[in-house]
Design a protein that fits this description.
CATH superfamily of one domain: Peroxidase, domain 2
Helix content: 40-55%
Strand order of the largest sheet: 1-2
Family: Belongs to the peroxidase family. Classical plant (class III) peroxidase subfamily. Belongs to the peroxidase family. Ascorbate peroxidase subfamily.
CATH class of one domain: Mainly Alpha
Shape: globular
GO cellular component, one term: plant-type cell wall
Largest sheet: 2 strands, antiparallel
Order of helices and strands: HHHHHHHHEHHEHHHH
Radius of gyration: 20 Å
Enzyme class: oxidoreductase
Keywords: Calcium, Disulfide bond, Glycoprotein, Heme, Hydrogen peroxide, Iron, Metal-binding, Oxidoreductase, Peroxidase, Secreted, Signal
Distance between the termini: 48 Å
Bound molecules: protoporphyrin IX containing FE, 2-acetamido-2-deoxy-beta-D-glucopyranose
CATH architecture of one domain: Orthogonal Bundle
EC number: 1.11.1.7
């Protein structure tokens, strides 16, 4: 495990050096043309996905801003890399923000809007209380506005930045992000609570929730693999540890040794501030390790454990123990998630500030 962490740090160090050189030399020709600023074939990590054509892109286009703002994707990548280098938790933060955006009114950046005098926005819903990374999106947006005013949507910035943040450890994009999304003008807290599944959800609830976004059981399983990075707060786990059925018991579907360990981290059932890694020892590395711990019944939430309660889902989860299979399937499912309910053409608007409707 230690060697894995060392490897990751090394990769991050190399990547950040690279971005530093790239950013410093932005007036000169950079080593690799964008499209990216990404190298190709470093000989490790998953392969690219040039051959995959999305089954459903919702009317999005590859490199939508090629003519209108040619450096848009490069700016997203450069600014994102800078932030990830100083905050390795950021990939987890951003991908969760994107999930919570796309599941409510589609990927329209509605999660980025601030509450107004009139209404409480998604951002301030309970389920979004722990979301972070908004400042990074704002930073990217202001860099892009300097170059092309009013052209690039916050919805595209969030989707691209998430891909770039998660991909940085591999030095190449892990999935495609066609662009052309427009920004929504409506954000309602109650819609977040209604559309985002809770960590206590059983399999039926999860499948129905994903189906309502045209996502399949395979998408549900693959995308749950995002829990290979990031942390969860103790209060979302305590029922499983202390009082599962109201008789002071623990969740029988949770590995008992792992439950013992978790109780050393989450000592007080009411603790809302302590966090635990969702993929212990590997929570900064985006890989398929989640499926190894899931198989050992160490998935942190009831919603993780639920993936083992259905034959089809369990079988697919076991297939994702194969790294190539995981990276391929995750890429496909992220492309689908990134296309949910997108606004295109003249729908919505291009916000001037991501936290505010124009
Ligand atoms: C299948 C339904 C899902 C449920 C029920 C669920 C539930 C949760 C819960 C309860 C947390 C902990 C939040 C906290 O303690 O602050 C969490 C964290 C997280 N979720 Fe999910 N999630 C689901 C799907 C997804 C998907 C589809 C993605 C992305 C593709 C994702 C990415 C993440 C990440 C990266 C974190 C860690 C965030 C951090 O470190 O701050 N989740 N999720
Ligand atoms: C949105 O809210 C955040 C946090 O409260 C604040 O920092 C930011 O300035 C707000 N955005 C605008 C445009 O007022
Ligand atoms: C509140 O709603 C009214 C009518 O729907 C609108 O004209 C006004 O601009 C809104 N105010 C704020 C602060 O959003
Ligand atoms: C799943 O959860 C829902 C909502 O709590 C509940 O109505 C349903 O009975 C549960 N299904 C199973 C199979 O436990
Ligand atoms: C799901 O697919 C149907 C049929 O193609 C479409 O009408 C609907 O808008 C889609 N829903 C979402 C959330 O993308
Ligand atoms: C455990 O749950 C039961 C039923 O919900 C509740 O009555 C009891 O107070 C809980 N025990 C603790 C220690 O929280």
């Amino acid at each position: 495990m230690a060697s894995k962490v060392l490897f990751l740090l090394l990769v991050l160090a190399i990547c950040s050096t690279f971005v530093f050189c790239n950013a410093g030399g932005s007036k000169k020709k950079s080593h690799y043309k964008h499209k990216g600023g990404w190298g190709h074939g470093h000989g490790h990590g998953p392969r690219g996905h040039d051959s995959y054509e999305p089954e459903y892109d919702g009317g999005l286009k590859n490199d939508f801003y090629r003519k209108s703002c040619p450096r848009a994707e490069e700016i997203v990548q450069t600014v994102t890399s800078r932030h990830v280098t100083s905050n390795p938790n950021l990939p987890a933060k951003l991908i969760r923000v994107l999930f919570h955006d796309c599941f409510v009114r589609g990927c329209d950046a509605s999660v980025l809007l601030n509450s107004t005098g009139n209404s409480t926005s998604e951002k301030d819903a309970n389920t979004n209380r722990n979301l972070e990374g908004f400042n990074v999106i704002d930073d990217i947006k202001s860099e892009i506005e300097k170059e092309c005013k009013g052209i690039v949507s916050c919805a595209d910035i969030l989707t691209l930045a998430t891909r770039d943040a998660v991909s940085l450890q591999y030095g190449r994009p892990l999935w495609k992000v066609p662009t052309g999304r427009r920004d929504g003008t409506i954000s309602i807290a109650s819609e977040a609570s209604a559309n985002i599944p809770s960590g206590a959800s059983n399999f039926t609830v999860l499948v129905n929730n994903f189906a309502s976004k045209n996502l399949t059981v395979r998408d549900l399983v693959a995308l749950s693999g995002a829990h290979t990075i990031g942390v969860g707060h103790c209060n979302f786990v305590s029922r499983r540890l202390f009082n599962f059925t109201g008789r002071g018991d623990q969740d029988p579907s949770l590995n008992p040794k792992y439950a013992d360990f978790l109780r050393t981290q989450c000592r007080d059932p009411a603790d809302r501030t302590t966090t635990v890694e969702m993929d212990p020892g590997s929570s900064l590395s985006f890989d398929n390790h989640y499926f190894k711990i899931l198989k050992e019944h160490k998935g942190l939430f009831v919603s993780d454990a639920a993936l083992l309660t259905d034959d089809k889902a369990r079988e697919f989860a076991l297939q994702l123990l194969n790294p190539k299979m995981f990276f391929d399937e995750f890429a496909k499912s992220m492309e689908k998630m990134g296309a949910i309910g997108v606004l295109t053409g003249s729908q919505g608007q291009i916000r001037n500030k991501c936290s505010l409707v124009n």
